[in-house]
Amino acid sequence: MGLGYSEEDERIIAEKWEELQASCAKICKNEEDRNFIKRAYFLAKEAHQGVRRRSGEPYLLHPIAVAKIAVDEIGLGVKSVVAALLHDVVEDTDYTVEDMERIFGHKIATMVDGLTKMSGVFNADTSEQAEYFRKVLLTLSDDVRVILIKIADRLHNMRTLGFMPVNKQIKITGETFHLFAPLAHRLGLFAIKSELEDLCLKYRFPKDYEEIRRKVEQTERERSEYIKRFNAPIIEALNRDGIKYEISGRVKSIYSIWSKMQRKQIPFEEVYDLFAIRIIFKAEPFPSEKTQCWQIYSSITDIYAPKPGRMRDWISMPKTNGYEALHVTVMGPDGVWVEVQIRSERMDEIAEKGFAAHWKYKKASISQNEDEFDRWLKKIRDALNSPNENAVEFLDNFKLSLYTSEITVFTPKGEPRIMPVGATALDFAYDIHSKIGNKAIGAKINHKIEPITTPINNGDQIEIITADTAKPKAEWLGVVSTTKAKQAITSFLKREQQNNLERGIKIFEERLAKFNVKQSGRVLRKVIPAYECTTKDEFYSKVGAGIINLNDLEKVLKSSSSSKILKFWTLYIDNNAGEKGDGNAQTRPEQFVRAECCDPIPGDQVVGFRDPDTDEIIVHKATCPEIDRLASQFGKYIIKNEIKWSQHKSMSFLTSVEIRGIDRMGMLLDLSKVITDDFSINMRSVAISSHDGVFEGSLSLYVRDTESLNALLDRIRKIKGIETVKRLAN
Questions:
Q1: Which of 141-150, 353-362, 704-713 has the lowest mean pLDDT?
Q2: Bridge partners of 276?
Q3: Phi and psi at residue 702, in whole multiples of 5°?
Q4: Which of 10, 15, 18, 91 is the catalytic position?
Q5: CB 80, CB 148: distance < 8 Å
Q6: Which residue from 74, 138, 534, 689 has the highest number of Cβ atoms inside 10 Å of its Cβ?
Q7: Mean pLDDT of the chain
């Protein structure tokens, strides 16, 4: 506890409290509601008295800010504001959940408990962070508002992340990008999802963020003039039809621009869809909202030609998160494709405030039928209560259900079901029931018999064929994409493989004893890749099942260390990393392992992760999705010191490059000349195919670092006929 707040602190607190009260005016029905919020505020003020955040500001400003986000940006009510004000009281002060129940009632106590961080003893096989997330998500079974407040809490923490040390920034941005942004997306909080992604980019890749922000700002005038020209005939048509509306041009988020640049490996100047036009209309009682949307669509496509296959109808079949709108891409002036989004005021509120608005409108409607959002929530509750899955596996599988595009398929009786893009008939079988999935042997897709592993498409009608003798196979895990299917298959395989696992451990230990070798992380580090396994459990299971025999174990144990270890990297250790200090760094040679998922090369920005099983430091590209997953679940193993490549450049690294262009005589010769003669780079392999005058292919090259690779790619782009060149991410 501190010594109290200064007069200036008290002035700022009073100012922010007044702003929150003004925001709460729209949700307080009476004096009782206002007093309920005041009681929570004064208790929080007393509990956090004198405490400061890392930024130096009074801690009380944090719960006030979270409460304001909850009411202004998410649209929550009085109980949520009270819970937001109290969300850190139990965790950080002497108050207990029982005190909350006595003072504020059972519902507030339950919400505050759900918001209180995980503490106590954890299972050694699970991650503390994953267990914490699981506990937070378990509140979905009781009250979704807890999750929404948690997202508000994370948003404010991200807005003030600049005061945290670098290793904490990596951990928090990893958590945010891996779970909180997708969760905000699934709960329909589009604006918050976009801001969380932008803030992650700002702290993980500050130079990229600032460059895109600056370029968006520089092109604003030109873009505004184009939008004005594009909108003019649409405005004329809508006015003529007597429609009450607002029309605006929305620029893409910085993260979405960066993501497209990374995905397509193109510069900012080649991102053409920087903005979208949004039309929000005031719905009339008659005709229906849906009809009015289509009338506006018709007016727009009378003016501009629509792009075939780019119309998105989320009115007839809303997204799982409740999102409703019509999207159409049309050819605007100067040959530019422009996306136009059409929404009613109700649809827009749901799009911006997500679940809270969705629930408000549902309660106001006559129909209380279960919708897609309810069905998704039910699936998540079932998954959360699965007894056969540890927290880390749960978190990996849960994320699959968050960030995905959707298709609609139909049962034999015509019942529509929402599935993720990329789902297979097997996913559909498990979506119907886990027993159907476990016994599935094939499917009738649109009345034609297909393998159970066949991908399904929008509008397919699917019937599952089963057999009593069928059972799940391990390879199915590589086929399915839904959380429910992965959980059911994993659960079945775990029961079947447990005996193999125990038997494998016993066999391996007995075999090691013959050679007087004690089992250790170093031993496992040798044998696991030698037998083409990725985890020790996989290795033990295959030994126990007889798939792996250990006849050559002695030879493996005597072999030299893994060639993946790079002894010439240097770890720059700054004892003041992320803190205020003189920044004097000491250096120490370390052994690292290059992550196979992204194969970093000298010059790439990298992040280190210390494997808790082997104690090795595994280095990933900073852009690698796997490092976000690891940071979100095992943040304490992220290397807090800065990792840089040493100056040693005698070794070459294998990397792959994808090329595409117009085929012509001598193209391959020109490519070879640039690569081998001009840059003295060795090629491991070349695979080129040509069809109808267009060629595409890949090159495997040995390069020293990203600087020499980027110079080569720039030179290849200048070869006549080359359209695109990009480095492939493994």
A1: 353-362
A2: 250, 339
A3: -100, 115
A4: 91
A5: yes
A6: 74
A7: 82
